[in-house]
C-alpha cells in the first residue's frame, strides 16, 4: 500500500460529504426504507457518531490513517443464539459484542436486548463508549453488546438468552479485558445471570459485569447513576443559562432506568415534570406529574396512558410541550429533522445515546437550545460502573453517599473541562466533548505505540 493510502471497510461507509443534510440523505439511501426508530428518524446511530467523530477529527487535523484506527472497531464478535420461546418454537437471534478501542483500559459498555439491534448500531454505541469513558476520564476503553430479540420476553426466556449469550462471548470478556453493563431492556437481574454464567467457567468473578444487584456485590447508587449524572450536568450548567433547578419544568421521553431516575432526582430539586412518554404512549399535565408515583405505578404493571391526573397526548407531540428541560431517555434518532423545529425547550440533556440527529442539532442550535450531549450527559452510568468494578476488585463496599459524592466530582469536572474547551474554541458542547475524548484516546494510543 502506498504511503498515506487508507483502507476503509466498505460496510462502515465511504461518503465524504459530512454536512448534516448529506449524512441524513446518505443514511436514508443506505436503509432504502422509511422511518425506523421512534417518530420519523431515518439516520442510524452509526451515521450520527461518525458525523461527530469526523468533524472533531478535522478540527484536530488527524491524519487519515489514524482516523481509520479509531473509526473501525478492534474486535467484532457475532454469535447465534437459538432459544425455544413460550410459543414452543426455536427462535434464532443474533448477538454481538464489539470492542471499539482499549487504549485507555479494559473495554466497557452495556448490553442491549432489543429487536432493532444490528451490527451497525452496536458499532456506533461501542465507539461512543470510547469517547465517553475518555471524556469522563475513567480508565476504560469502549465496547457495546446487543441481542436482536423481542423487548417483551418472559423472565425465563430472558434468562436463557442472557446465559446463552454469555456462553458464546465469554472468551473475549474478563475483569481486565471487557466488562459489560445494563442498557435498554437489560437490568441488574440480567447482570446477575451473566455473572453467574461466567462464574461457572471461571469461578466467582463479580468484576466481570457492573450494574449488578446490591445483594451480589453491585454498587450502591449504580441503578440511579445515569439519571443522577444527567441531573448533575444540568445543575452545573443551570447558573450559566439563567435557570434555577427549583423553578424548572421538564419533559422525559422514555421512562425506563435513565428517564425515571433523572425525573425523580429532578423532582427532588423542586423541578416539575409536565410530560412524559414510554413505548406505550405519552401523557401531559401542566400542574405536574409525580415522578415517584408514576414509577411505582408502572412497576406495579400500570400503563402510562392510564395514569391518574394527566391527559393522554400523541407521542409525536411530546417534543412540542413547552418546558425548560427536555430529557430524551429512549432510543437513538428520536429528535430529528422532522420534529426538531417543534421543540419548545431551553435545554436538552441527552440521557439516551445518539437521540439527536445532526440535522436536528443544527435546527436546535438556530433555536438557541443548549444541548448537553450524550457523550458527557449520560456518562454517570459508566462512572459508577467504574466505582463498582473498583469495589469488586478490592472486595470492598462504599456507602451510597460516597458513591454519589464521587460521581458528582467526576461529572462536574467533565462539564467544566468540556464547557471550557467549548468557550475557548467557540464551538458547542458536543464538538468540544468529542475533541477532549478523541485527544485523550489518541494520546494513550501514541504512548502505547499503537499509532
Ligand atoms: P430501559 O430499557 O430501562 O428504558 C427504555 C425506555 O424507553 C422504556 O421506558 C421504554 O418504554 C422507552 N421507549 C422505548 N421506545 C420508545 C419510544 N418509541 N418512545 C418513547 N419511549 C420509548 O433503558 P435505559 O437503560 O433507561 O436506556 C435508555 C437510553 O439511555 C438508551 O439510549 C441507552 O443506551 C442510554 N443509556 C443507558 C445507560 C444505563 O446505565 N442504563 C447509560 C448510558 C446511556
Essential attributes:
binds nicotinamide-adenine-dinucleotide, disordered N terminus, alpha/beta, seven-stranded mixed β-sheet, Rossmann fold, 14 helices, globular, five-stranded mixed β-sheet, 451 residues, 44% helix, single chain
Give an account of the 3D structure.
With 451 residues, this protein is an alpha/beta fold. Helix 10 links the parallel strand 11 and strand 12. It starts with 19 loop residues before the first helix and ends with a helix. Among the domains are: 142 residues, Rossmann fold, CATH 3.40.50.10860; 153 residues, NAD(P)-binding Rossmann-like Domain (Rossmann fold), CATH 3.40.50.720. The strands form two sheets. The chain has a seven-stranded mixed sheet with strand order 9-8-7-6-10-11-12, with helices on both faces. A five-stranded mixed sheet has the order 1-2-4-3-5. The structure holds nicotinamide-adenine-dinucleotide.
User: Which distinct ligands sit in these coordinates?
Assistant: nicotinamide-adenine-dinucleotide
- Total strand count, please? 12
CATH class of the domain at 225-377: Alpha Beta
The oligomeric state is single chain
Neighbour order of strands in the largest sheet: 9-8-7-6-10-11-12
CATH topology of the domain at 225-377: Rossmann fold
Secondary structure: helix percent: 40-55%
Main sheet: strands, sense, barrel: 7 strands, mixed
Q: What's the Cα radius of gyration?
A: 21 Å
Q: Give average pLDDT, whole number.
A: 92
Amino acid at each position: 500500500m502506498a504511503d498515506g493510502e487508507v483502507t476503509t471497510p466498505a460496510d462502515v461507509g465511504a461518503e465524504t460529504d459530512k454536512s448534516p443534510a448529506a449524512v441524513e440523505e446518505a443514511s436514508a439511501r443506505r436503509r432504502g426504507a422509511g422511518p425506523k426508530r421512534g417518530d420519523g428518524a431515518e439516520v442510524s446511530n452509526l451515521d450520527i457518531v461518525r458525523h461527530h467523530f469526523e468533524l472533531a477529527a478535522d478540527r484536530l487535523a488527524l491524519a487519515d490513517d489514524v482516523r481509520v484506527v479509531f473509526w473501525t472497531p478492534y474486535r467484532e464478535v457475532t454469535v447465534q443464539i437459538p432459544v425455544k420461546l413460550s410459543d414452543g418454537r426455536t427462535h434464532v437471534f443474533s448477538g454481538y459484542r464489539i470492542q471499539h478501542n482499549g487504549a485507555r483500559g479494559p473495554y466497557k459498555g452495556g448490553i442491549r436486548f432489543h429487536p432493532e439491534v444490528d451490527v451497525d448500531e452496536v458499532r456506533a454505541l461501542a465507539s461512543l463508549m470510547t469517547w465517553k469513558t475518555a471524556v469522563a476520564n475513567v480508565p476504560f476503553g469502549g465496547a457495546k453488546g446487543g441481542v436482536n430479540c423481542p423487548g417483551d420476553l418472559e423472565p425465563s426466556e430472558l434468562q436463557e438468552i442472557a446465559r446463552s449469550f454469555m456462553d458464546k462471548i465469554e472468551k473475549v470478556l474478563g475483569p481486565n479485558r471487557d466488562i459489560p453493563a445494563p442498557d435498554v431492556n437489560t437490568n441488574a437481574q440480567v447482570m446477575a445471570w451473566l455473572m453467574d454464567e461466567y462464574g461457572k467457567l471461571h469461578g466467582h468473578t463479580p468484576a466481570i459485569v457492573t450494574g449488578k444487584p446490591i445483594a451480589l456485590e453491585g454498587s450502591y447508587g449504580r441503578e440511579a447513576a445515569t439519571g443522577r449524572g444527567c441531573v448533575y450536568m444540568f445543575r452545573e450548567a443551570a447558573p450559566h443559562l439563567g435557570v434555577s433547578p427549583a423553578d424548572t419544568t421538564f419533559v422525559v421521553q422514555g421512562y425506563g432506568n435513565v428517564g425515571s431516575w433523572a425525573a425523580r432526582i429532578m423532582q427532588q430539586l423542586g423541578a416539575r415534570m409536565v410530560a412524559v412518554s414510554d413505548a406505550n404512549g405519552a401523557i401531559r399535565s401542566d400542574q405536574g406529574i409525580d415522578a415517584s408515583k408514576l414509577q411505582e405505578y408502572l412497576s406495579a404493571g400500570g400503563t402510562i396512558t392510564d395514569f391518574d391526573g394527566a391527559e393522554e397526548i400523541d407521542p409525536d407531540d411530546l417534543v412540542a410541550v413547552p418546558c425548560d428541560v427536555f430529557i430524551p431517555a429512549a432510543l437513538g434518532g428520536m429528535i430529528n429533522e422532522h420534529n426538531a423545529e417543534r421543540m419548545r425547550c431551553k435545554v436538552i440533556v441527552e440521557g439516551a445515546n445518539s437521540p439527536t440527529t445532526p440535522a436536528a442539532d443544527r435546527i436546535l442550535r438556530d433555536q438557541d437550545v443548549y444541548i448537553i450531549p450524550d457523550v458527557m450527559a449520560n456518562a454517570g452510568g459508566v462512572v459508577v460502573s467504574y466505582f463498582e468494578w473498583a469495589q469488586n476488585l478490592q472486595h470492598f463496599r462504599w456507602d451510597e453517599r460516597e458513591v454519589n459524592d464521587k460521581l458528582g466530582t467526576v461529572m462536574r469536572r467533565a462539564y467544566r473541562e468540556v464547557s471550557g474547551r467549548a468557550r475557548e474554541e467557540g464551538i458547542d458542547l458536543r464538538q468540544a466533548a468529542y475533541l477532549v475524548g478523541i485527544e485523550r484516546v489518541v494520546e494513550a494510543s501514541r504512548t502505547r505505540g499503537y499509532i
